[in-house]
Amino acid sequence: MGPGGGGGRSSRPLSASEIGTLREEVSEDIQKALEKAKLVQRFDVLLKLPSDGDLRVFFLDVGQGNCTVVKLPDGRIMVIDCNTEGANDNVINFLKRAGISQIDVLVATHPDQDHISGLARLAKLFNIKELWKVAFEKTEENASSESLEAFEGYKRAVEVLRSQGTRILNPTVETYDRDFGKATIEVMAPFSKNPGDYKTANEASMVLRLSHAGKKFLFTADTTTETWEKLTTSGGVSADVLQASHHGAESGFHPDIMKTVQPQVVVVSVGKNQFGHPHAAPMNEYEKAPKGVVRTDDGMVAVHVKKDGSTDFVQ
């Protein structure tokens, strides 16, 4: 112990330049927080405003997972996947702030936890009119014990919805397209209702295309290269906005995607992860889109298609 009797580190006054730097850093942080708050308010207002024949699509920042909220031209609400684990934009809070108590269509594209972790909470807190899901069963042969446990929770949530009167549907490419006002939703995959036709949940992923006022969105969940082979071969999958499959992973990519879909912009739903998503090779291709790539780990993405087809992008 030193002569002064204290064992702590010595300190010195900050210089004027150091004080100035700290002030700049604090000011910058405050400015970023204010800008984010304004943006959140803008998204909330956009969701809350009454429909005017327009389409509003919100790709939420839910970490390493998927969740998209759609306000259809007739005012109905669709939620495509509902991850809430590690979500910066929690779908429950987002809907509640807009005064929404009913989800007209909830889509579980496939029963992986990063796509359906919020299902039980949504079943408890909202009136859900329809659930669209795929006919895939996880077993000890095709899933880990952790994944099986999550799948059991998913099945319980589905049964809760069934008991509450929710209409449960298993759409396939041959059986189910729907009109919502002047918007059309096409089921592009899966191709079969037979669970035995799929080895993994990703193979069974539901792929949807939403069209309104000449603009199209393609939601691809975690669909695989093999499914893309069928989609690109058959054609008819063009879209202005492409949501990249499997968080930008190589396993959800096909070399013909960009020339077949011809997107104006690609949205990558991704967060901090151990898998290296998004992978470099797919991203190099996605970035060739005229308006490039937007990522949800940079914040929520909103696309507003007005009834005359004019479109605003907000992030």
Task: Describe the structure in your own words.
This protein is of the alpha/beta class and 315 residues long. It has a single domain (50-314), classed as Metallo-beta-lactamase, Chain A, CATH 3.60.15. The protein is 29% helix and 23% strand. The strands form 2 sheets. It has an 8-stranded mixed sheet with strand order 6-5-4-3-2-1-14-15. A 7-stranded mixed sheet has the order 7-8-9-10-11-12-13, with no helix packed on it. It starts with 15 loop residues before the first helix and ends with a strand. Mean pLDDT is 91; it is low at 1-6.
Element layout with pairings:
Layout: H1 16-48, E1 55-59, E2 67-71, E3 77-82, H2 91-97, E4 102-108, H3 113-116, H4 119-125, E5 127-133, H5 145-163, E6 167-169, E7 177-180, E8 183-189, E9 207-212, E10 215-219, H6 225-234, E11 241-243, H7 257-261, E12 265-268, H8 280-286, E13 293-295, E14 301-305, E15 311-314
Parallel strand pairs: 3-4, 4-5, 5-6, 10-11, 11-12, 12-13
Antiparallel strand pairs: 1-2, 1-14, 2-3, 7-8, 8-9, 9-10, 14-15
Put the structure in a nutshell.
With 315 residues, the chain is of the alpha/beta class. The chain has a single domain, classed as Ribonuclease Z/Hydroxyacylglutathione hydrolase-like (Metallo-beta-lactamase, Chain A, 4-Layer Sandwich).
